Amino acid sequence: FPSYFTVIMLLSRLMAFIGIPKNDDVLSSNLEDLDIGSKLSRGPSAIASSSQDFGLIVKSVPQAVLFPSSPQDIASLLKSNYNSSAPFTVAARGNSHSVRGQAMAKNGVVVDMTWLNKNPNKIGIRISNDGKYADVGGQQLWIDVLNVTLRSGLSPVSWTDYLYLTVGGTLSNAGISGQTFRYGPQISNVYEMDVITGKGDFVTCSPNNNSDLFFAVLGGLGQFGIITRARIPLETAPKRVKWIRMFYSDFTAFSRDQELLISKNERADKNALNYVEGSLLLNQGSLENFRSTFFPPQDQPKIIALITKYGIVYSLEIVKYYYDDQTNATVDKDLQQQLQGLTYLPGFLFEKGVSYVEFLNRVRSEELKLRSKGLWDVPHPWLNLFIPKSRMTDFNHGVFKGIVLQRKITIGPLLVYPMNRNKWDDRMSASIPDEEIFYTVGFLLASGFDNWQAFDDQNKAVLRFCEKAGIEVKQYLPHYTTKEDWITHFGSKWNAFQQRKQQFDPKFLLSPGQSIFNSNS
Ligand code: FAD
Hints:
Layout: H1 4-18, H2 23-27, E1 40-41, H3 44-50, E2 64-66, H4 71-83, E3 90-93, E4 109-112, E5 125-127, E6 133-137, H5 142-150, E7 154-155, H6 167-171, H7 180-183, E8 192-197, E9 202-205, H8 211-217, E10 225-233, E11 235-236, E12 240-248, H9 251-262, E13 275-282, H10 300-310, E14 312-322, H11 328-339, E15 349-355, H12 356-360, H13 362-372, E16 383-388, H14 392-407, E17 414-420, E18 437-443, H15 452-469, E19 474-476, H16 483-490, H17 494-504
Parallel strand pairs: 2-4, 3-4
Antiparallel strand pairs: 1-2, 5-6, 6-10, 7-11, 8-9, 8-10, 12-14, 12-15, 13-14, 16-18, 16-19, 17-18
Helix pairs in contact: 14-15
């Protein structure tokens, strides 16, 4: 029989191999002595799921995962960790839809935020008596916020394209979609938050109360604290929407029309559009990648012929909501006015009327389709950029018509749409270009497990092109690997960002996966 020591050694090798940390790693931090010790798991499935994300590119193994029953559990973990002589890093994990390990904590502790929902007394989704806002747990998915508020005929106004993301996760980035030009990003639509800082302090903050923490956290990439509650403004929910896509062969005409449409952006203006986006259609012989369910099957051959002719077709997408007092006819009349003077290709305007929920939850049907083909849980080497309007022509020329057409790596949607800077509050941590109008471009690529590097090489080529051409892009959902890049990213906000880090997380413990103050490799 093997000796006791041999068995222990073999067991420890096996544990290391399957990713279970050794006991002494955790014990060194006295985790087991905490009153939340019983809520920490080092089980293989907890560790495995916290070691990866939607991107399926990065793997970082934590020592343990906290399954909190309440925000107090999180505060307790952060407080004792902060006071410990050997603190570990901690990452909140929302729905883990980051693509580069941003919600991971190598050798640290991952806080599984969604576990909070198992507590019947959780911070759920509570609408105020006057219906002006909802108090929402940081772990809540936006789809649930939508479903609950709709029951009272209400809804938040600023969205992401995809709704299976947590409130805390999108508020740590920005939360953008076609509504941003008019309502601002999701981080511009928060009245108040409860945040547990890196020191373990539980703080309620708003623009007038602990405002430093409030603005730090919005777009703060999880660096300053863990959001456990956010107060989100609500408005009357529309019942239905009119949804239109128009095609262009010329980028100048496409972007001129997009910019014209987003110039009418008063929040209270009932005539303004509610959503403006855009995307590229590239020559792939089919419409599979382009949310094709939108286009009537009988029109698909002519669309494919158009793309084949031009190589790239630009698709402008708009939506107008309608409320109880509006009919199909009045909305159509309204839209006719908006469309006047636009220069899309004749015969290439497609429209449909759908329910508000069907529109907002549109990416879910794409997800289910991809899942059924085994194409959802694959690597996602995404690149999301913010680009100043003044350089979009150069970007179109060098990237869309250059790199993208040459390399032909286009599996996944390629989004392009403008936003207004004045809808963003400069006190927030989120970093955006200096110009009044800037574009977001999203290369939402999906690759195979053995070829994601080739996709990533295309991303690198895009970034190199921008650098060479002097186009000052900012990454959205940023992934930088050097301090210099982070300093450049935050630009004039870097000093404040650093000072706020010193104030709220001086030991650099939170969200190490962002690799801003710690290296997660
Ligand atoms: P996670 O990936 O779990 O976490 C992201 C970061 O936030 C991490 O640093 C984490 O530590 C931190 N964090 C998480 N929860 C909290 C909390 N409660 N408090 C403090 N920090 C926290 N983004 C858009 O803006 N618009 C879109 O249209 C859009 N569409 C998307 C579609 C898909 C299919 C996917 C996969 C992503 C999309 N995203 C979009 C990106 C998405 O908003 C971000 O990846 C977001 O971070 C995901 O939320 P999450 O809850 O999964 O966060």
